[in-house]
Every structure is written in structure tokens, then in C-alpha cells.
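We examine the record.

___
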Amino acid sequence: MAKRGGFPGGMPGNMNNLMKQAQKMQKQMEEATKELEEKEITATAGGGAVEVTISGKKEVTKVKLSEEVVDPDDIEMLEDLIMAATNEALRQIEEASQQSMSKITGGLGGGFPF
């Protein structure tokens, strides 16, 4: 007579292993997130005339301008360079975050395959 309920074929042991793996992955993700938050990325624009540093928390921590880029008659160019450097730094932070999580999840996209 077949058993009712439960998981046939020793599934509870597999479920236990799955839970352990999920907990391990969660801990690794927390550690990677903390490590990433402590990271800083610096990007430049205008051949290095504008330099922007962004933290792993996606906060601007530093903006450095070379004297030759500060032209009161061309504020728009300076604004564009600051925006370009900031966007590049943010892109690099996002890329670093995706690479870090991909190492942990094995390319699952941060989710579980079920």
C-alpha cells in the first residue's frame, strides 16, 4: 500500500540540502552586498577633465574638476561632462554588482529555478 502525504523517494533529505544551499547563498549574497557597498568606482569624462567617484551605495562621494574645464561661458559643457562621468561610474557599479551576484547564483539571475 502506498504511503499518503510526505515526499516519496527521500525528498525530505533533498529538501534539507536545498534549504542549506539557499541559506549559504543568502549569506554569500549578504557578504557580497556589504563588500560592494564599501567599494568605490571612479569614472572620468572629457579626457579626465571631470572625475566622479560613486560608492557601492550609489552615492556620489567626490567630484573633481580640472581648471581648464571650468569655463563660465560654457556651463552646459561642464554639466554634460559631470553627467557623463556620473553615469559611467553608476554603470560600472551596476556591472560590478551583477558580476558579484552572478558568481554566487551561478547565473540564475538572482532567483531560484522553480
